[in-house]
Amino acid sequence: MSTKFPMPTTQTISAGQFALMVTAAYLGFGIFQFPLELVKDGGPDALYSLILEILAAFGGLWLLFRANRIQPGETMTGFSHQVLHPMIRWPISVITIAIHSALGACLVSNFGFVITAFFLPDTPDWVIRLTLVTTCLYMVWFDTPSLARTVQILLPMTMLLTLLMGLLLVPKMTSGYAVIPSASIHVLPILYAAYRDFYVFLGFEVSVTLYPYIRPPERALGEKYTFLAMGVVGAWFIIGYALVLGVEGPYFMVHLLWPPVSAMRLINVSGFIINKLGLLVIVMWGVFTLLFIAVRIWCVGHDVMPLFRLTSRTAYRLLAGGGAVVIYLGASLFPTVHALVQWFATYLLPTAIAYIFLVPLIVMLGAWLTKRKHQKSKASPANPQSSPQ
Amino acid sequence: MKQKLLWLVSILCVITLVTGCWDDRPVEERGLVLMLGISPSPHHGVTLYFEVPTSSGLTSLTSGGSSSSGGPKFVIYRGHGATFSDAFTDAQGQTNEDLYLGQTQVIALSTRLPPATFAVIDATLARLGPMDKSADAVAVTGSMAKFMAFSPAGTSLPGLYLASLFACHHCQTAQLARTVWSREKRLWSPTASVWVPKISAHGSTFNVDRIVVYQGYRPVLVLTRRQTWDVGCLLGITVKAPLTVSTSYGTISLRAVRASPHFKTKPAPDGKILIHVTVHLSATLDSVPPNLLITTPILHEIEARADTLLSHRLLSILVTLQKAGSNPLGFGRRYVWVRQDFSAWPTLYRHATLAVTAHIHIHQLGDLQ
Questions:
Q1: Is A361 on the interface with B (CB under 8 A)?
Q2: C-beta atoms of B17 and A134 within 8 A
Q3: pLDDT tens by residue, A230-264
Q4: Cis omega before residue A216 (within 30°)?
Q5: So where are chain B's domains?
Q6: Rounded Cα gap, residues A264 and A282, in angstroms
Q7: Between A and B, how many residue pairs show a Cβ–Cβ distance under 8 A?
Q8: What is the ipTM of this complex?
Q9: Considering only CB atoms, which chain A residues are within 8 Å of B340?
Q10: Domain spanning B225-369 has what CATH number?
Q11: Cα separations (Å) of A235 from A242, B45, B71, B234, B288?
Q12: Alpha-carbon distance A93 to A320, whole Å?
């Protein structure tokens, strides 16, 4: 049984689910390294960089929503054939799919390294990657509403638990001096650190694919909730920044591979049934990872479908399976975490940032030109159908 | 039915994969290292000591450590090697258990370790993922072999004894516990120096009332008991320290002195930097000369005398530390961080002008007027 594309009402999600899915699409990516690059490049001005990147993320999300409003009922890949020349449309669609696959591959690889470094040193990497990708494929198998409900249940709970556990680090904040930003502002380091740390927000471009699945009357509310969720995540990151930097200090932190993981490992509640409570939270961060990768696989499926005018659920599942395989194989390409970080910073980060801020502008420009062309053709006397408005 | 079967098989596959069976180690195959001792080897390498509880020792834990039967409670494996890994391998060859550092409670570091060797070992410890960074770090000035073999009276496992001692915030004059983590953190700092408590066997017990301060990886001073208490005041870690003050009324004794220090580092007009330490202390009046009736003016005079005494003493230990090139109090952390000028700090600190202001407040008088 096939379904029309975009999916009928049974495939729609609520405004809240949309906001949480967009949040899940970026939250899991940066939590393991944050705020390493921020402090390394921003130095004592790192907090300014963090605020700047949060504002930039708001700006990027606003741009994407503006692009979505051109054809709210279709994904951007789906409606771009109406407004963009194939020479522009195809590269953008391919880059969209490539970015989703690459982001997924990077996180699978990164989380695999975290697990083998701290928990399962003797377990082969491929087992951890395969487990992650297989679980994520199962999460997306029943398509959008099912994935949205999973996100709805898991994401707020894990965020809250992480925050509560993180607050247990407050007594260990012996380097609070580094949290307060300096009075002197150095513009270039601030901008560079904001750019380098923007990976914590990479992934919210999922909104261009997910937007048509919001129930039509709730679309404006969906945007509002997504901004609200981004504000919450921004505050969450500011608290995380203060905790990790305050506990580890700037000099030691910049030498660690996964500063938040190292900080959470120090949480030890004496007398509690679980000896090292912080370690449990790190395992729970696997939830962020799973949700992030699942949304990426979902995106790959739903971004490829309109390219070939595919509409059936079988096609979606095959494409999602293909996306999972690509993510798994992509994750296997990084021999070390250093290679991963290097590749990400050189190629993926600038590409994804350029995508977020340029593609909506290109699409909006294309839509404006198309609209103008239509208006001209309607206004032309040679067109007998035209009527003055 | 076919689809359900497919999902069942898939779920079973996932469950099998997530069990982590590659890392599964039955507890009876694990040698839980409770205390790790690190000392220099006679042949320019390192000697590691691993305190591992025996099955009898583990059983004694459940019986409150009172079990006296069943032979030795722990065994020490000693490994030598050019590197940490070599020494570990040497020790691993002496046992049929998997030596596991994930439950290590105490890491004892010999002060005799050459700085270069210490630096390499430290980097190795920092890289060990499963290593517990919340373990306590202690310094041993004497023979590591004797220290590791020592077991205090009334306890079966020295590693756990020390861990419980450091976990208890009221069981020492000052909270001297230092985690491996905090030591590693300080080693990377361009300003703060490492300090760790010194442990020695004294009679039938451990003695923990002094600290060793480092300059980088080199131990430079072993403080006396009083100096340790003074540094404890400057660090704000004193719990029940005593203070004796000579006044015109005779000798006055204070106890349970707690301190709350504040540092300020700022440039001075002469191009140097000024480090001003203000310490607010609170104490309980312990003993006064017989027949001395405590009044408010007398109390103020005692406090003023104690302020002067403490200011001098604290300044004296600060100057001693400054001369040794050690900065265990972490002066200048924000000063350097904001200016990002790390290389200038050692010279600045060496020539810094130090000032201490102590304010003691006697807030408890006991049950006597």
A1: no
A2: yes
A3: 999 999 999 999 999 999 999 999 999 999 998 98
A4: no
A5: 26-222, 225-369
A6: 7
A7: 77
A8: 0.85
A9: 43-44
A10: 3.30.300.210
A11: 11, 50, 57, 35, 55
A12: 16
